[in-house]
Amino acid sequence: MKFIPRKPREGINVSDTHPLVEAGTLVVGLTAIFIVIALALIFIVEIALYFVPVEKEADFFADWLPEDLATVAPNDDRLRETQLLVDRLALHWGDAPYEFRVEIDDSDVANAMALPGGLIIVTQGLLDQVESENELAFVLGHELGHFKNRDHLRALGRGIVLSLFFSVATGNDVSNLSIKVTDLALRGFSREQESDADEFGLALVYTHYGHVDEASRLFERWDEDDRSLLDIVSYLSTHPATADRIEELEELALRENWPVEGSVTVLKW
Amino acid sequence: MDGNTVENFSLFMNFGFPLLLLLLAYFIGSMIERRHFRNIRRREDDNVGFPVVSFDTMPDDWNVSDSTMVSGSIVVSLDYFKRVIAGLRSLVGGRVKTYEPLLDRARREALLRMTESARKQGYDAVFNVRLETSRLANSRGDGKGIAGVEMLAFGTAVKFASRFARA
Fold it and tell me: Spelled out in words, what is the top-level CATH class assigned to the domain B3-165?
């Protein structure tokens, strides 16, 4: 046998894939899988939530508050008045299964939200903008409409799954789930859900005051006044565009023969 | 410090810092790897005529006067980038491509060290060459972490009695 000196051959035991390509493929691929799983989970949870009886939901979330909510002092005048207004409006919803709780979020952007367990959150920004009780009543009635149609469960699945993933990713205790209001606020309701909630809200306002004057005044002001654009971005991100909405409300009042003029109740603060 | 600063800081520590470490590990790690491969190729060129074979018995026509065992070993460790990418790879399986150059370097470096040691001692060839690996656990104590892998090359180095024997 003859010995022939040879250099070791390259490229047999080492693949020529660039490490960054390998990293990119893995990261992109796994992220895609992760997102698909997350979306599937959210979908399943949200479907499942609609099968949870209302009483169970109300009971389970009776004392629940989102983790990152900056609430005002419990003796706040506005909080008390808003809570009273919600209670009075809820009287006209015959068999409301919730005990509605109002919390004021210490935020400058105007927004209102319906959250699980009959929790209604309104922001300081919204309360700064409303000029009459009727305006506020419609916003609150609209949120009550979301409860009526159980729309508020929509974002809950996302909130649960997102915070679950977040706890896993950061190594926090999974059993100690904390749903953040920021996760829930990012939900988008469909136009139909919003219109249904508007209809319910306006009906409540009519039943309560006997007319729908000033119900949509807040949105009209927003529509006219571009300066408050920044203030309303938040509300609009979770609610339909103002001009269309005002029109729909007017049509509704006309169709139902609800008087569009009446005595407006002033705010008590 | 207000809540926002604390939150940003913890966000940075949770996500930004590992990412920074990952990039740093990639750049330093690939620089070291490139340099090591250059060095290996140069030394392989230097040793190209020196017989290193894996026969377990000496070829009949080798007429040797002296023999000894020679060995070369290297301990290599993963960089953070390779480990993270391999961790992702382990989720789905397949070739762990980031580890392959690492082990290739280790094998070739161990063989080179063995060869160089044989030449330095005046031997003419090495036969019955074997490669062994062993895992070195790190100091974490639970035995789960891996500090590195040792690659050991060893064989029997021989001195030829006459130059004719190396036909």
Answer: alpha beta
